[in-house]
Amino acid sequence: MDGDKPAAGEAGHFWRPSTRLNRLVERVLRVFPERPLRQAELELLQHRSIDAFAQLGASRDALERVVTDTEWQMSPGRAPSDAWGGEVLRRADGPPYVVLYRDSALTRLPGRWLFRAASQLTVDHMFGHLYEYHCGAEDWGEEVATRWQFRALRQRGGVVNNATAAVMALTSRFHKQIPLSNYG
Asked: Are the C-beta atoms of 88 and 126 separated by less than 8 Å?
């Protein structure tokens, strides 16, 4: 392993260059109660991701495999401080899987609307990783996932989605050191 970056085929999470932002958000949101993501909500979010990605030209077959050929776990535990609400984890000898944490910054967001919007962002991000994986891409890391996440927001359109896309790109620039050119 090179620093925190798993080598090809090595199990673990994707390299995260900075977790300061996540820790700050986690501390602020700790005062709010958990609001777990339910299976029915997850399925709706997955379908919204499939629709948005397909409208962007993604293969429906690969998108369906993101759901049917990927294990999506709902963990009862607390998220690591460097995971917003969930993460795609790599196995050394098998397909990746998703863990969504019951106790996380995501599940402590106040207000139903904010929780739902942030949950969609989270699922879109997971889809970005997994879509590329199921297409056989060598690179299905953070830059690729945030690019798909950004494109899905822009595709859905509207002031809120477009503003969220801009904020996401800027925070990813500083939080994950992903260049703004990634979204162009």
From this structure: yes
Distance in angstroms (rounded) separating the CA atoms of residues 90 and 94:
8
E strands present in 41-178: 71-78, 86-91, 94-103
Please work out, in degrees rounded to the nearest 5, the angle formed at the alpha carbon of residue 144 by the alpha carbons of 140 and 145: 90
Phi, psi of 10 (to 5 degrees): -85, 140
CA atoms within 13 A of residue 75's CA, in its CB half-sphere? 18
Tokens 């501390």 sit at which residue? 27
> What is the length of the chain?
184
Query: What is the strand order of the sheet 86-91 is part of?
Result: 12-13, 86-91, 94-103, 71-78
DSSP 72: E
- Read off the pLDDT of residues 131-166 as tens digits, 9 standing for 90 and up: 999 999 999 999 999 999 999 999 999 999 999 999
- Span 91-101, pLDDT tens digits: 888 899 999 99
Please give the angle made by the CA atoms of 159, 110 and 72, to the nearest 5 degrees.
85
